[in-house]
Structures are given as C-alpha cells and as structure tokens.
Write a structure and sequence with these properties.
about 475 residues; alpha/beta; FAD/NAD(P)-binding domain; D-Amino Acid Oxidase, Chain A, domain 2; 8-stranded mixed sheet; 18 strands; about 30% helix; binds flavin-adenine dinucleotide
Length: about 475
C-alpha cells in the first residue's frame, strides 16, 4: 500500500493509542507512540492507567475486531496466560434471573488489563515503522502559520522536565484518556472546544484477587451479578492468568464496597445471587485491594464541531469515558481505530479528524445510550426519561425473563451488549414473538430473586430509544 504520509504520532499508549497505531502503521512510513509513563516490558501495572487494577475484559465485539486488526492476537493472549472464555462458561445474573446461554458461542478475554495491554503493545511495537517513545509527555501542538493544520507536537521529558523536543507529523492522534488536554489546546489555537456532556452516577469499585479453585461453580469463568434497580450493589468475577480470579465489587450512587477481606466477603454475600460469595468465601486472597471511583460519564462532542485542524484526531476515553460497569471502553476504541483505517482508505488525510469522528459516532452513541440509559433507571440519576425510553424499558422488562429461558433471546441480548450488533436487533419480529411468548411462561429456572428487569436490559432499551444529540440525558457542566 503506498504511504499516505511520512509520520503519524499517537499521544498516549493506552489501549486506544495502541490500537490506533495499527491502521496508521499500514498507511504511514513512521508511527511514533508517545507516553509519559515508562512503559513496562513485563505485564506490570503503571501509573498512567490506574484503572488497570480492576476487571478489564474485551466483550465479544471487541475481541473479534481486535483479532481482525492484529491477526493472531487471540493466540498471543492465550500464550501469555489469558483465558478465552466461551459464553457457556459465563453465569450472568440479570433481571432477577440467570441468562440461559446454553449452546451460544460468544468469547471474551479473561486476563488482567496489564496483560492485555502488554500483549497488544508487543504486537504494535513489532509493526514496521512503529517506534515507542516513553517517558515523554505531550505539552502542546505545533501548527502551520494559519493554524489550520497541526504539524506536530512539543514534548517534555518526565525525567528531566527542562528537556523538550518537537516532533513533526502529518497526523497527530490524541488518545491521552479522560484528562486529555485537547479541549484546552483547541481553545488556545482559536478553535471552539467541544461541548462536554456528563451524567453523574457516583459509582465505586473495589477489586481483590483470589486463588481460583477451578471446581467452583461448575468451572464457570465469568460471573456477573447485575446491580438491581432497587439496590446499589453488584459485582463481577473473571478467571485470569496465573490461576486467579479477579473480583470487582460495584457500588452505585455513592455506595462504596469495602476493601478489607471480611467486609469484601460480607458485601459479596449480600448480593442477590450467591455466586460471587461462593467464589470469595474461603478463597485465598492474592495481593492488596484496589479502589476506584467513577463520578460521571463524560462525552466530548468533537463529532459536532464544525472545525477541527487538519491532521488531527481525538479518540478513546479522550472523546468519551463510559461507566466501566459495561466494559465498553476498549471495544469502542478498537471500533474507532477500524473506522480510522477505513476513513484513511476512503479519502486520505483530508479532513481525517472530522470524518473519522463521524464514522465512529455510531459506536460511541450505542455504548453511551446503553450505559447511560441503564443508569437512568435509578431515580436519583438526574436526566430526561422520555416516553420512548419508558416504552422500550417495558419491552425489555419482558425480554430478560424470556432470556432466562430461551437461549435465542439471550444470544440476541448478548450480541447487543457485546457490541456485535446494533440495539435495533432486539426489535426484530422473530425476537419480538419469542419475547412475548417466552416472558409469559413460568419455569422459574435460574431465577434467583431481585428485580424483574436488570439494568442492562433497561440500558438496551435506552440504546434503541434514547434520543440523540441535544436531547441526550447528559448535562453540560
Ligand atoms: C475501573 C475501570 C474498569 C474498566 N473496565 C473495562 C472493561 O472491562 N472493558 C473495557 O473495554 N473497558 C474498561 N474500562 C475502560 C478502559 O480502561 C478505557 O476505556 C480504555 O483503556 C481506553 O482508554 P484510553 O486508551 O483512551 O485511555 P487510558 O487508558 O487512560 O490511557 C491514556 C494513556 O495516555 C497517557 N498519557 C496521558 N497524558 C499524556 C500526555 N500528556 N502525554 C503522553 N501520554 C499521556 C497515559 O499514561 C496512558 O497511557 C474500565 C475503566 C475503569 C475506570
């Protein structure tokens, strides 16, 4: 393939930065991945990605697209110790029961975030023309005289703050995460910064790891206990490398899962399904607890800007950071990277920023609607709840009970929340019929209590029906 340019720079070598380097390496002679952290050779945690201490899994639509971007990556992950976990090994407690995933064949990763990132980083480093420049922080953009084009970036050494260097490039991609300086940089260059939308949810996470007894829960390797709408508490467990479980307990709306072993076990025991308690009780802890807070969703509407300098793109959490409960962030970043490759192939670097943002908008919107729509089920979450949201919620309150008994319905639901399909798939006539018939039957199988419709069901309702644009549930700060 002829090169579209000499040099592309990616700022931030987190998951979004790494996957964006892939389409760029195939289309530019050189790609430099810059990160202010010193990137570990091994699979260690690092300062710039504190969320790496908590559960990180690639949902089916992320794993399959990552394999398309980097063929053989699933084998690389498993060779490094990651599990690839098939859906019959999941126990998803949602909507007051357990989804029937018999015979379904979805796959997710079972690994720590440092392992996933480390394996992907090794593959990206090995691509022709890719250089990783770590220990350097992006300070400001450089432009042409008319400020219509980004020409590079000025960096500062983290070790020697007096030391600076400037890199020139045909394209700069900002994937520096939620705290991205792009809104400020754009304003300083005389561009309107993107509006920011927020939805305050005040979610807290506490994570511990345990030795894993493979016999527990009939060998299940992924357990989800959804937060019921009349409660605040939930959790997830995932089998990871080195024979361990990673267990993340979730507290909504200010609820804080405790970090001490006894408090952690009590919290797990109080959930509406016993599965997490069965994993935690009596299991040998491994390492210390980690805590994280997610105060609010944040979406920067770069996709609505009229002007963005040429040679510039923003992606990943720098555009939108989602409530981690839904495991969407890495997958959305992968989709954005795929769309970047397509946009470059369609029309080269001309207006590449705005074109890529427009092309990837569907993924950000689906994930945003899914997650914010779910959280709006809590009366304390402040945002509009239009009639369409209530109607679809009512439908989904029937869908989940059907999915407790009918693997076809469960599979359709997983395809949507796993980002393999758009939310409209849940409204197809054949599925409507199964939902209406299935939700009426009373088998009771897998029903463990709780509310008749889980949060993700409501979120999927929102995924179809949440209004877009200005009517979205978000608030400007
Ligand atoms: C608790 C928690 C759990 C999560 N679980 C999941 C999950 O299960 N599945 C999932 O898909 N997503 C999950 N996410 C979201 C996921 O972590 C992110 O969406 C994903 O990592 C993409 O982030 P990013 O690469 O855009 O930003 P980040 O991961 O924040 O990476 C940004 C990078 O930029 C670097 N950087 C920052 N500033 C500068 C600068 N000025 N110069 C140079 N470098 C800079 C940082 O060092 C870092 O390496 C979770 C998030 C949280 C908080």
């Amino acid at each position: 393939m002829p090169h579209l340019g000499e040099h592309a720079i990616v700022l931030g070598a987190g998951m979004a930065g790494l996957v964006h380097a892939v389409p760029l390496a195939r289309r530019f002679r050189h790609v430099t991945l810059v990160d202010r952290d010193l990137l570990p050779d091994r699979r260690d945690e690092r300062r710039g990605v504190p969320q790496g201490q908590h559960i990180h899994l690639l949902v089916p639509g992320g794993l399959s697209r990552l394999e398309e971007l980097l063929p053989g990556i699933v084998d690389d992950l498993t060779a490094a110790g990651a599990h690839v976990i098939e859906s019959p090994e999941w126990r998803f407690h949602m909507g007051g029961g357990r989804l029937d995933l018999t015979g379904t064949d979805f796959r997710i990763t079972g690994a720590t975030r440092p392992l996933i990132e480390g394996v992907v980083r090794d593959r990206v480093r090995a691509l022709d023309g890719v250089e990783v420049l770590d220990g350097w922080a992006a300070r400001e953009l450089t432009t042409d005289a008319g400020r219509s084009r980004i020409t590079g970036v000025r960096l500062r050494s983290e070790a020697e703050p007096a030391e600076e260097r400037t890199l020139d490039a045909d394209l700069v991609v900002d994937t520096t995460g939620r705290g991205s300086p792009s809104p400020r940089w754009l304003a300083e260059l005389g561009y309107a910064p993107p509006a920011e939308e927020r939805l305050k949810v005040d979610v807290h996470y506490t994570t511990r790891m345990f030795r894993r007894d493979p016999a527990v829960l009939d060998g299940a390797r992924n357990v989800l206990v959804d937060v019921p709408p009349d409660g605040r508490r939930g959790g997830v467990a995932l089998a990871i490398e080195d024979g361990r479980w990673i267990v993340t307990l979730i507290g909504m709306l200010g609820e804080r899962p405790p970090a001490d072993p006894a408090g952690f076990a009590d919290y797990a025991a109080g959930l509406w399904s016993r599965d997490l308690s069965d994993i935690v009780a009596g299991a040998e802890p491994s390492g210390e607890a980690a805590r994280a807070a997610f105060p609010s969703f944040s979406r920067h509407r770069y996709d609505r800007l009229r002007r963005l300098p040429e040679g510039y793109l923003v992606a990943g959490d720098a555009v939108c950071s989602f409530d981690p409960r839904f495991g969407q962030g890495m997958t959305v970043a992968i989709i954005e990277a795929v769309e970047l490759g397509r946009a470059l192939d369609a029309r080269g670097v001309d207006r590449i920023g705005l074109r890529t943002l427009a092309a990837a908008r569907w993924a950000v919107q689906d994930a945003w609607d899914l997650a914010t729509g779910s959280d709006l089920a809590y009366p304390e979450v402040d945002g509009p709840r239009p009639v369409s949201w209530r109607l679809t919620t009512a439908y989904l309150q029937r869908l989940l009970p059907a999915a407790h008994r009918d693997p076809v319905v469960a599979a359709a639901f997983i395809r949507v929340i796993g980002m393999l399909a758009r939310p409209a798939e849940l409204m197809r006539p054949h599925l409507l019929a199964r939902v209406l018939i299935g939700s009426g039957r009373q088998t009771g199988r897998g029903v463990t209590g709780g509310h008749p419709a889980g949060t993700l069901a409501r979120s999927t309702a929102a995924g179809r029906q949440q209004p877009r644009g200005d009517r979205s549930p978000a608030r400007r700060p």
